[in-house]
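N-acetyltransferase domain-containing protein
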Amino acid sequence: MADTRYALLDPLRFPLVARFYKTHYPAGKPKKDEIIWTAENNSGLFGSVRFRQFPDFQLLTGMLIAPEQRGKKQGEAFLNAVQTQIQTKTCYCLAYRYLENLYKEAGFEVIEVSNLPEELRGRYQSYCNSGKDLIPMGHNSMSQL
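Tokens:
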């Protein structure tokens, strides 16, 4: 991972991230109003983490690692690299249950659905009702945890 570079996305490079999602996770569509971080190595873009901003908090909307890079601790390294972003203001994520330990290692803790901001509770319920096995998490830098 020595050749890995993590950076806040330059808006001019947004099409690159959009193409990355279309290739590896068509259901996830990056949005220009999100804060997006990228992970690249000498072979090019292999990861993206997106943060949706709300007035009083942010939502880590998802992390995508290219399939050929999975299982190599890239997710852990990426979440570590974006800690400054995570800690800029209260941060939540709605994580797939099988990724709970990954997010816990990055400082997130499972929280009660009732502790999610109102704007996220409905989204969480909708995702779960559509069959996604998610857990609500908040970063432990939050004062209410």
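The radius of gyration is 15 Å.
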